[in-house]
Amino acid sequence: MQVIICDNAQQVAENAAHWVSELINNKSNPVLGLATGSTPISLYQQLVAKHQAGKLSFANTTTFNLDEYQNIAADNAQSYRYFMNENLFDHVDINKNNTFLPTCTQAQNPREQGLAYEAKIKAAGGVDLQILGIGANGHIGFNEPTSSLASRTRIKTLTQQTLTDNSRLFKPDEEQPTLAMTMGIATILDARYVLLMATGKGKAKAVKDMVTGGVSAMCPASALQMHENAIVLLDKEAASELSDHNYYLWADKENNKVNQEFGLFHNF
Ligand code: PGA
Q1: What is the pLDDT tens value at each position of the chain, 268 positions in all?
Q2: What's the 186 CA to ligand 1 centre distance in angstroms?
Q3: Which residue from 122, 128, 141, 144 could staple onto 66, CB 3.0 to 4.6 Å apart?
Q4: Which residue in 99, 24, 16, 11 sits closest to 55, CA to CA?
Q5: pTM for this prediction
Q6: Which residues line ligand 1 (CB under 6 A)?
Q7: CA proximity to 188, closest of 155, 231, 149
Q8: CB distance 191 to 129 below 8 Å
Q9: Catalytic residue flag (residue 143)
């Protein structure tokens, strides 16, 4: 795990945008895994700004989102499709036919939908770089604690903590979905690179469990310890329960020397 401690949330977003644009600018048909939630919004703002400045084109990029509520219409403002359109897709030159979310209507079989999503990712060549946030309970995507570390795209029942954490996003008269389709932990681990962003004090305990705890289904993000290329971008608050800050800062400097000479990605 490459733990990068940034001065603030803005730097986390800038750093993440650098990884994404390096991928897109250096690979002919990049496949990007995307996340929703509050944390990646500033990343998407950075990407839109780069696109508007003529420095980044999404014309050849394919995207796969981590998750989507079950049985939600694309034009429902609470859907993750709507979120992605609003925060990224509507502002860049991506072909929306190449943007995918794990949808599942009431009439569809979630098991078949999960398998179909996995097949689509495979057919696209696999995810090159997966963006992740982390829940206060350690979830990645909607892989809640106790999710199998070998899980694949499937339907999940959200925990009470996740429902409470996300309730801020719903108006009192809006129904909050309790079921979602999500990439599994094994699906996420298949990505060639994973880049997890975490900011704020509320994530400090989950970050500590992910980086220094044992690998456990109780903290799904800890599975990233088993990933060959996991980058963890933190602000100081999210990193506040980690010991060894000096080591991470020093290692980052050394990694930067290699990255500057040889590029960020080494196996494309
Ligand atoms: P947040 O969500 O970015 O809104 O904090 C992260 C997550 O639950 O994965």
Answers
A1: 999 999 999 999 999 999 999 999 999 999 999 999 999 999 999 999 999 999 999 999 999 999 999 999 999 999 999 999 999 999 999 999 999 999 999 999 999 999 999 999 999 999 999 999 999 999 999 999 999 999 999 999 999 999 998 999 999 999 899 999 999 999 999 999 999 999 999 999 999 999 999 999 999 999 999 999 999 999 999 999 999 999 999 999 999 999 999 999 986 7
A2: 19
A3: 141
A4: 24
A5: 0.97
A6: 37-39, 133-135
A7: 149
A8: yes
A9: no
